[in-house]
Amino acid sequence: MTTIRILVVEDHPIVRQGLVALLNVVDGVEVVGEAANGVEAVWEFEARHPDVTLIDLRLPKMSGVEVIQRIRADHAHARFIVLTTYDGDEDIYRALQAGARAYLLKGMTVEVLISAIRSVHEGKSIIPPAIAQKLAERMATEQLTQREQDVLEEIVRGKSNREIGVALDISEATVKTHINNLLGKLGVEDRTQAATAAIQRGLVQLDPKGDLRI
User: Fold this and answer.
1) H-assigned helices in the chain
2) Is 214:167 a contact under the CB 8 Å cutoff?
3) Are 3 and 9 in contact (CB under 8 A)?
4) Mean pLDDT, the chain, as a whole number?
5) pLDDT of residue 214
6) Reduced to 3 states, what is the DSSP secondary structure of residue 162?
7) What whole-number distance in Å separates Cα of residue 118 and Cα of residue 81?
8) How far is Cα 193 from Cα 134, in angstroms, rounded to an integer?
9) Mean pLDDT of all residues in 25-42
10) Using an 8 Å Cβ cutoff, are 81 and 100 in contact?
């Protein structure tokens, strides 16, 4: 049996150590590297060249999606499994668009994880039904423009229309137009609902301290 070489990228030490301990007792699987943030993940990949990388989405210094994009720019056949607690449709869309072969939630069983690792190593993609449904819903919705995304991020920061206009160098009237457009696209009625939807769906990401992640 070919040994599948694994890189584990997870910023929570207990979770990372648990995954490493779990995988190292599975026949045909060997953890060859660990990383606690996105920058370390890139370094470890270049040093170890794993067959499959398990990676969380929310990481210090560089997000999981950014890591996947950075590595696959030079290693197009790199295989990634996203292992996360986040199931927002935008999170899913961005991860798979970046090139992840599988998207798993941390509540899955050991058997599901091991099966996914072996399937991805064989070149297959693993998208659980619930994840596939959210991806389909995301694909059916109208995408925000970059300016609407900018305005949404400022809304999450708690800024008023006037403050948003100053921050983005646009008029308050233009801010209101963008807000009306993004409310319609998000299917919500007001700014508070827009901010909540943005965080839940992964359109805007917060760091562990609760600050907006840029």
Assistant:
1) 13-23, 38-48, 64-74, 89-98, 110-121, 129-140, 146-156, 161-168, 172-186, 191-201
2) no
3) no
4) 90
5) 44
6) helix
7) 11
8) 19
9) 95
10) yes
Provide the whole-model pTM: 0.76
Token pair 């901010």 is at which residue? 195
* Ramachandran assignment for 169, one of left (phi > 0), alpha (psi -120 to 50 degrees), beta (any other): left
Mutual orientation of helices 89-98 and 129-140 as an angle, nearest 10°? 90
| Closest listed residue to residue 104, CA positions, set 84, 78, 118, 88 | 84
- DSSP track, 127-140: --HHHHHHHHHHHH
pLDDT score recorded for residue 107: 86
Q: How far apart are CA 169 and CA 83, in angstroms?
A: 39
pLDDT at res. 204: 84
Cross-strand bridge partners of residue 126? 102
Residue 82: count other Cβ atoms within 10 Å of its Cβ.
Answer: 27
Give the total residue count for the chain. Answer: 214
